[in-house]
């Protein structure tokens, strides 16, 4: 509200236009949405009516104008993007804004071009839902990171445990195979014992053995 009050004070200080706070309304518009503004009680001055916009810390900008209630509206250059349309009947003036975006936020009012007058005014701002606030996004980001870490732990922890359990058994099996190979090699390549030939010679007196 302080920001809106400063805008109105700025306008009045330069004698552009004074808007009664009692007639001041705030409207929230969704991004990409559509909004229609109404300026009423203009039956006695239904000529040369303008729609104005004033954003914070900026000058008042003319959006569109109508010379008479029956004439076609003229949209000024900065707003010739197909999203702003001005119309009227015998007592009311309308401003329709399509595809609302952040840059469209600001104070909108209608009236004459030169004299001060109490006009209906509407402050348009972007509607921010709880799912779009920075705090909510921060919480969602933190929870998402925690969930991701937990999922990784759940996936890789059993695999790691199995690898730790499998390693000793594989080492024992490998050692057993190596032991069997060494034992088999020892049996296969063990040299045969040398045999000694014994010759017996018999003489008349005794028996003699040579080896």
Automatic annotation (TrEMBL):
Q: Which residues form the Ig-like domain?
A: 22-129
Which positions carry the signal peptide feature in this UniProt record? 1-22
SMART domains xref list? IG
> One Gene Ontology cellular component annotation?
plasma membrane
Name a Pfam family for this protein: V-set
Name the SUPFAM superfamilies for this protein. Answer: Immunoglobulin
InterPro entries per record:
Ig-like_dom (IPR007110), Ig-like_dom_sf (IPR036179), Ig-like_fold (IPR013783), Ig_sub (IPR003599), Ig_V-set (IPR013106), TCR_complex_component (IPR052051)
- Which ranges does the record mark as transmembrane? 135-157
Query: Where is this gene product found?
Result: Cell membrane
Report whether Cell membrane shows up as a keyword of the record.
yes
GO biological process terms, semicolon-separated: immune system process; response to bacterium
**Key words, A-Z:** Cell membrane, Disulfide bond, Glycoprotein, Immunity, Membrane, Signal, Transmembrane, Transmembrane helix
Q: Highest taxon of the source?
A: Eukaryota
Which protein is depicted? Answer: Ig-like domain-containing protein
Q: Which organism is it from?
A: Oryzias latipes (Japanese rice fish)
